[in-house]
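Supplementary Data S3. Sequence and structure tokens for construct A.
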Amino acid sequence: MKRHILGLAGASALAIGLQTGAALAQDCSVNVGTLYPTSVDWGRPIAETALWVGEMINEAGGVDGCEVNMILRDDQNDGRVGVDAARALVDIDQVQLLIGTVSSGITIPILTSVTAPAGVMQMSCCSSSTRLTEIAASGEARGLWFRTFATADVQAAVAAMLARDAGIESITVVYKNDDWGQDIGRMAAAAFEAVGIEVHASIALNDAQPSYRAEATQALRDQPGALYLALYPTEGISFVREWLGLGGTSVMIGANSLRSDDFRTTVGLANLGDFVGTDTSSPRVPSAEAFVDAYAAHFGSAPSGPGLSNSFDAAAIALLAYHAAGRDATGTEIAAQVPRVTDPDGEAIPATVEGFAQAMAILSEGGSVSYQGATGAVTFDANGNVSAPAVSWVFDDSGMAEQRYISLEEVSGFMASIN
């Protein structure tokens, strides 16, 4: 199998026709929009994972017998760029399905101003803001919205669990000043307070400031016992260096957005010995273990970094739903087929080329399947949300290592106790 090396700049697009030799003899194709921040280090593997699924679907026979043409655009982790790229995919490339993106602050305006008004289905791997639940519940998303990543309240609750178990008595919350950061920052502060941890302050960081020294000084004023960081690597690196330079504590809890080699190497492993991160996790089931093995065989290394398993499942479920709806389907018709792909009573199918071929045969005959993927047997609620276990993780010489697995039952029980 070939691997696509992605290095896109600006809003330019790379249209990738995923040819797989003799597996596809047909002369039709379907365009699928793929929108991810490929110009940042943690975004490229997420996009590559989605493209890999396109290869597998083509090898299994394509969407309704047609070749999948994954059209990839780079949102540069910027809201304005992301909306423009999404409009190009919808208006120029005429996609009925858009897979992406990562940041909630980009996903929200795309959903409300581009995909939902145009009747295009949108499936995100990684956007976690609860604002998206509100949009779906209000009807504004028109039933076109799904995500394979649990909402931000899971990570917020797990951060409070870790802080409580570590004996932390006071904390300051530092968050990115966008939809995602405001959402998770607010929920994290409430969760800390619910377990008896004093929250000294909640401080917002704006993009592209030349310095975060003023914010670091403000955070240091009350001498908190720890920091909670809901930041992306760029501002996270700048803020943490200022914070440590001013003598701030090295005890930090971070959201999964800091699960980045750039953050680890630039801040320095010596300064991150007391850092612990949170993330949602795949359940400990055979399909999740099979994904790790398949990923390593395809890319040459085990999956490391945020969103990879979620990206795989987002692309797989969306493309199988497209197959079930038919090559000429609208976004509304594709979205209507998602329950047939994730039916708990359907035939269990593995996330392999053979499994995809089996699923497509069953779906073509009017049946339903229970997709068993990288994050387990995925099911969605009425607002396009999923539930998930969680993990804590740390930085080490090899990159990032899991510290503790927290089952779905434990996560749900803890969230109920603090709510």
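Construct B, processed identically:
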Amino acid sequence: MTSQRRSTYPGESAEPRVEHDANVWRIRSAEAVRQVLRERDATTQAGFASETVPSRRNDPILFMDGEKHRQQRSKTARFFAPKTVSTRYRELMATRADDLVAEALTEDTFRLDQFSLRYSVEIAAQVIGLTNSPIGPMATRLERFFEYPHGDAADARRGSSRFAKLRALILGNIPMGAFYLFDVRPAIKARRAEPAEDVISHLVAEGYSDSEILIECVTYGAAGMVTTREFISMCTWHLLTDDGLRRRYLDADQHERYLILSEVLRLEPIVGHLFRRAQRDFAFTADGQTHQVRSGELLDLFIRQANSDESTVGAEPLQLRPGRDLPRGIGEEVMSFGDGPHKCPGNALAIQETDVLVRKLMALDLEVVQEPTIGWDALISGYSLRGFVLRARRPAPVARAFVAGRTP
């Protein structure tokens, strides 16, 4: 059985590869998407509701651009460097994966989406510095925050009813308020007393206010917890429904396992759209034709379509085929981590974290009791997988090792 793409956003098309309408560019060509993202200082962040968020003295790194963004990326790069990830966090990942798998094996069935949330929250919390509150409740608070219908709140704020505006503001801030009160504030207090090697300590040293640190924690939480949770579930879904791929993954060395996971991410990018706003005129090329972008225009970059651009990824772009022959400079995940100055800094963390847990899961004799339901975030056309229920049919030797507290 050959795995095919499962995350197809309703109504999206692969054509036309480039279109321009009413000062909006819609770009589906991998070549053109890469050019736009790499065009130095030509565009600014326009996605993730960045253009509706009031500017602060210290904006979230996701919303920064230009020299300020480059400086901050340089200062925080040490937390996400591949060597740091491997030496500092691999043992933590292995230990937590062992503990969670052992816990799951005590139940008749378990939900992978809940299981992977706890795991991804705990790993990201160590990197960020959110280590002064219990992981389980923090994971629940983050889930409530990210699954709260923020778009509805924004719509209500634009409405005419003052009561609707007030209700939206109150309800929209309850999940964030709880996250700050129980998770972020204790971490800030602890780092001010005794700095550590983590993101919050860095932000405290940079003079960020509590509210600015909160927003950064939400930003890193979205990038490092929520997206990795979906990636773990999607990789597991593909591997459990493709026996050949699962055997290949289990027999592979780390390099090949990473190729397989990166190909899943290429096929199933968690963020479906990136948006940029042109700050000056510039040109990009697609299929031999040059297009001129004017200052002020919006660029909507279709990541799912770019990742399945046959001219870049080769034949059968909607099928999972690890080890594709890609053009020089294009990673195995193509545009799933973005590119250019805003390329996701946590790519090494996400791949290693996913591999550690998924490898342990694949060593078990698991069956899919209920396949996940795919939901969609309209803001970025990103998917969520919920209700993914698994069962261990019999305790394999590796499972008994987990229960006994030994990591194979």
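Confidence is low (pLDDT under 50) at residues 150-162. Residues 31 and 219 are 28 Å apart (CA to CA).
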